[in-house]
Amino acid sequence: MTSVPRTFEFQDSEVGAVSVEGSLLRVRLSAAQVHEQGIVGYLAGVVLELGDARWQGELAECVGALAEGSLHVNGRRCHPAPLPFAHEGEARLHLHFKSGASLSALAQQVRIHQLPGAGFTESMAC
After folding, report:
1. What is d(CA 92, CA 109) in angstroms, rounded to the nearest whole number?
2. Could you tell me which of 31, 37, 69, 89 has the fewest CB atoms within 10 Å of its CB?
3. Max Cα distance, the chain (Å)
4. How many CB atoms lie within 10 A of CB 44?
5. Phi-psi region of 120 (alpha: psi -120 to 50; beta: other; left: phi over 0)
6. What's the pLDDT at 63?
7. In this structure, are residues 124 and 76 in contact, taking their beta carbons and an 8 Å threshold?
8. What does the DSSP 8-state code read for residue 122?
């Protein structure tokens, strides 16, 4: 079975948690805006992992709705980012939250993947 091609965007996504393990910075999105076969929807459980990372920002404040964000690899903006995605080499991440918090990171590896069981939903509206 082949996987469905998806792309990921930061705008209108929501961060559920940011954690650190050594030099690995992990950003877990509780609702990630994705495009799948021309349809905009959301995945719960998309993870960005930045290896050999240095960052600025109060991690405890870096949760909630994103106003905007960007990922640059080797100096070029990766927008929208393929999902899944992996890159070895310089990567820069900038996240700006609707709360006013921000997170910036410089890393030497980046990986974007979805957790098992993360299903695509066309709308998160109630």
Report:
1. 10
2. 37
3. 42
4. 19
5. beta
6. 97
7. no
8. S
Q: What is the pLDDT along the chain (126 residues), one digit of tens a residue?
A: 346 678 989 988 999 999 999 999 999 999 999 988 888 899 888 999 999 999 999 999 999 999 999 999 999 999 888 899 999 999 999 999 999 999 999 999 999 999 888 778 886 554
Give the tokens for residue 107.
């890393």
> CA-CA distance, 118 to 5, in Å (whole number)?
15
**What are residue 59's phi and psi, to 5 degrees?**
-60, -35
The two tokens of residue 64 are 């909630």
Rounded Cα gap, residues 10 and 17, in angstroms: 15
Q: Encoding tokens for residue 65?
A: 């709705």
Tokens for 89, please give them: 């080499």
Q: What is the 3-state secondary structure (H, E, C) of 48-100?
A: EEEECCEEECCHHHCCEEEEEEEEEECCEECCCEEECEEEEEEEEEEEEECCC
